[in-house]
Amino acid sequence: MKKKKWKKYAFEFLSIFVALISAFALSNWNDNRKDSLSENKILTEISNGLEKDLDDIKLNIGGHKTGISACNYFRDVFAGKNIEADSLMFHYFNLTRDFVSIQNTAGYETLKSKGLELIKNDSLRLKIISLYEYDYNTLRKLEEEYTEMQFQENYFKEINHSLAPNFIFNDENLIMGIELPLKISNGEKKVFLLYLMKIQGNRNYIMNFYNQIEEKVIEVRKDIEKEIRR
């Protein structure tokens, strides 16, 4: 009789134990599934944001290239070469034009609020953190805060002081062209040429940084796509 009771209790205990383990496993499976779905959703959001970032990066690279073209244009002006008068105001506007770095960080901010460890792939997680915390912050500071990169503030007033007396205006007070050769002292000319060198050098510098970040963004997007497909 005792043996039967012992078997009965053992069976009941085993049944309860199996039920508890099964419930725990199911709960753990559900949690992992929820984490996986949340991870994929956030990664998709980050990838979409990075796609928009690439568009802004390309626009700013193009803008800095235009600024370099403006430097070359005004070197020709100072050299007394034949220039396209119709392009004067286009290059004049772009010579000292500044840019801002627009970054879509909504997906990354969501990730931080959920916990960075939500990204299971260590390599991908580190790449994402490095891109947003270091590369993007460095780019923003260079473009918007670094003194040498503030072309409008640093150079426009002095450049305008040298060029404005040589502009040709029509009856409606609109600029129609520029008198050549320029009526400008040799000292002013040298200062102006130094400004052009400085502007072009800094534009080339930040363009190189943009190109590096563009490569990193493309790489991170590819890694995200691979992770989502798993």
Descriptive overview:
This protein has helices spanning 2-78, 88-95, 106-114, 122-144, 151-163, 186-229, and strands at 167-169, 175-178. With 230 residues, the chain is mainly α. The longest helix is centred in the first third of the chain and has 77 residues, at 2-78. It has a two-stranded antiparallel ribbon with strand order 1-2. It is built from 6 helices and 2 strands. The two termini are 56 Å apart. The chain is elongated, with a radius of gyration of 31 Å. Helix 1 (2-78) packs antiparallel against helix 6 (186-229). The chain is 76% helix and 3% strand. The model is unreliable at 23-27 and 29-33 (pLDDT under 50).
